[in-house]
Amino acid sequence: MNFLDLIWLIPLFPVVGFLVNGLIGKRLPKSVVGIIGAGAVLVSFIFSAGAVLQLAQLPAEERSHTVRLYQWFDAGAAQTLGGQMARFQVDFGFLLDPLSSVMILVVTGIGFLIHVYSTGYMHEEDGFYRFFAYLNLFMFSMLTLVLGSNYLMMFIGWEGVGLCSYLLIGYYFHKKSAGDAAKKAFVVNRVGDWGLSIGIMLIFVSFGTIEFTAVGEAVREGLAAGSFSVSDPLFIGIALALFVGATGKSAQLPLYVWLPDAMEGPTPVSALIHAATMVTAGVYMVARSNFIFQMAPEAMAVVAVIGALTALFAASIGLVQNDIKRVLAYSTVSQLGYMFLALGVGAFAAGVFHLMTHAFFKALLFLGSGSVIHAMHHEQDMRKMGALKNKIPITFKTMAIGTLAIAGIPGLAGFFSKDEILWKAFSNPQGHVILWLLGVVVAGMTAFYMFRLLFMTFYGESRVDHHVEHHIHESPKSMTIPLMVLAAGSVVSGYLGIPLWLGGTNAFEHWLEPVFEPLPITQAAIVEHSHAFEAGMAALSVMVALAGIYLAYRKYYKTSYRAETEVASYGAAYPVLQNKYYVDELYDGLFVNRVKDAGVGLWKFDAKLVDGAVNGSASLTVTGANGSNWWDRWIVDGIVRFIGGFIKTASWPIRLIETGYTQNYALVMVLGVLIIIGYALWGGQ
Amino acid sequence: MVATHHYLFLAAALFTIGVIGVLTRRNIMIVLMSIELMMNAVNINLIAFSNHLQQVNGQIFAIFVITVAAAEAAVGLGIVIAMFKNKETMNINEIDLMKW
Amino acid sequence: MLELALFYIFGTIAVVSAILVITQHNVVHSAIFLAGTLLSVAGIFLALNAEFLAGVQVIVYVGGILVLFVFVIMLIAVERSTFERQFNRQWKIALITSAILIGELVYVVYQGRDTFVLAEPAVPLVQGAAGNSQQVGMGLYTTYLLPFEIASILLLVAIVGAVVLAKKKTQTE
Which one of A350, B6, C60, C132 is most buried, counting C-beta atoms within 10 A? Predict the structure, then answer.
């Protein structure tokens, strides 16, 4: 089979699953719903793998395959900034190139594992079919996002994943907090989507097309012809608009606030949408638009700084959170910050590499935490856990692997990708030593809070409720097997990109080279560093991570967890961190409450002025109506009655003819016809 | 070769029979059937002229007439059922609500 | 010669059946004779080289409309109507009117009979590969496309109307 031409089927299989589960899932047994839901994604994964394998067999420069299904719409001619006319026409097309192949493999592969996990995790829930229908709809949207061949296709997927995210965060819609979190996610994402749509419009008016490949060529040609120049305000504007979109979807400063609240959704959703796939859409989009960002170094600096700051900011909040999922949520925000740091310093491949490894270990950690929560009967507070190591051994071992991976311990996936980012932040022309320093600090914090999570949950003395303690049990096979597969992935996925200084070939970066081909822009020369220096830098970051682990070991392993000591050790910073720097309160004060005030104001306007006017006009109408009532009764009715009586009296002869029998009338009609025919025949002469 | 006016005589006969049925019968079902007879007479005329003039238009008009006949039968029979439900009769001369 | 035979055989059956339709006491018998008339009219259509219309006549009229009639008769026909007076009070005057009507019609046709005889048959309608159905179809879907679509709307309205008229009245009404 030629999978390359069948890539349009990849997003379509989950749609089938969505339709079946969504329409008739209620009447199907849960096992069938699960098989349909997971099976649809498995088929997508098989088709994705086939397509990627066939793509890999092509020579490197031909690894870009577009499938145009049909012209979606053609909105006619529009003037572009260059003065030419361009038709705003959009194809319903799919593009498979090295970047999207990485994305579809991650999305379908990890997505499939999470679907399998969900069959176990969600088994007791009502609305099991609804959950799988939403998950499949999400898979469709996400695959459209990463496979679409133009910005508008990506936008469909972008909005689709937003919708599914909303639906799935609010899955427990009877809980007010879940509904609020869903609304928050949706509204905050709207801000980002506004930026993205502005960016897409700017792209069209600048280049006359929104096809990824065509825009890339247009940039290259314009640069060669001299019509575009680096740091053109236009490019900075487009890049920043797109980045606003990315901050919304990928939870960067200042729009990250929705992601921690999104943990109200079921844990597999957190793993799939809010860790492994959807939140990386912003990273994908920026990487996909790398030709635009390369033209706007200032925008890239913004991306890098925002990324680094987000990483630091989120990691510091994560230090003191007590909800197991919230720690992971802030960790996700922080790791996404790493990815944007990589993108911002021009290391697009490193960012995507970290995206992939992060998808593995973060999905693993979330699913592991889900397994813990499952065992603890929906207890998420780590203060009420402890000493679970021997009770749920498989969960513990796999989560330990994930923790080691995210902490950047050599040999596991996170080390390779994180080290690559830190090195690029240091050595790339756009990089800066401060960015690198921030990254290293975050690496240490990451190791600390992740091991804090591990120690608080699995070691020390048990702080579990006595009712719950008897029932703690290891999760079923459908949940542990995905954990084990993801644990394996968290180890080996890093070996796709062994850096040169370790004697590797950096294969991952080579694979992505066709997409991230640098534009012919003169830049500061890359400072050459020896492999030994690079190894030294890596060793430094590992040491920082180890220091973080040691600190966590001292505080949470040697001495069992006690809330007072933890609070005391942070001093004045503790309430600030615990309350997430009061950002939610700030936003409430700045935006949410102002909107509410405006609403109250409008209500008052409505109650006083509008209602007053309505009431006044009502009483006026009543008065008028009384007058017209009199007029109506005596004058109008009088005339009508008089006419009626007159006609009744005068019409008695006519009533003799009008019998009311239809056939009488028909007979008269025929007579009339006869007279007309007769007149036509004889009357004319 | 039958001259066209033969068909017209036949149609005239059928049409008049239909008119008689409509004007004289009390049973509403038969009145409706008589209307169908009249429509058929019209169709014969249309097709006779279509054949006479060697043009297909007449036949197309006949199709429209049949369409109208189908619609008329559906609505007419609906009225019959409604009438029967209300008045328990099929006799058209027991319905004289047109005179109030 | 064949046409002549067809015309006389079917014409006779049509007229006789039609008279029987309007004179029967039993509605079911009327319906059966109506079927006879309709089928013989289909035969007349055949004699007039309108094969497609003949088919439509059989399928739509006999197969559709007449069956609808029989169905309604089955639903509501009351036995007593067979034994009642069959004609209304105006039947004499109606017959006289009808006699005048047919007199006038025959007079008109008879007066104009010469115009209906062409010197020689015009170009046969069925020519070359284009059969009757094809010609009807071409006309129906090109020149008369709009009336055709309107006819479909008419049928839709008739369906809705029939359902509304015939459905059970709810308590609220």
Answer: A350
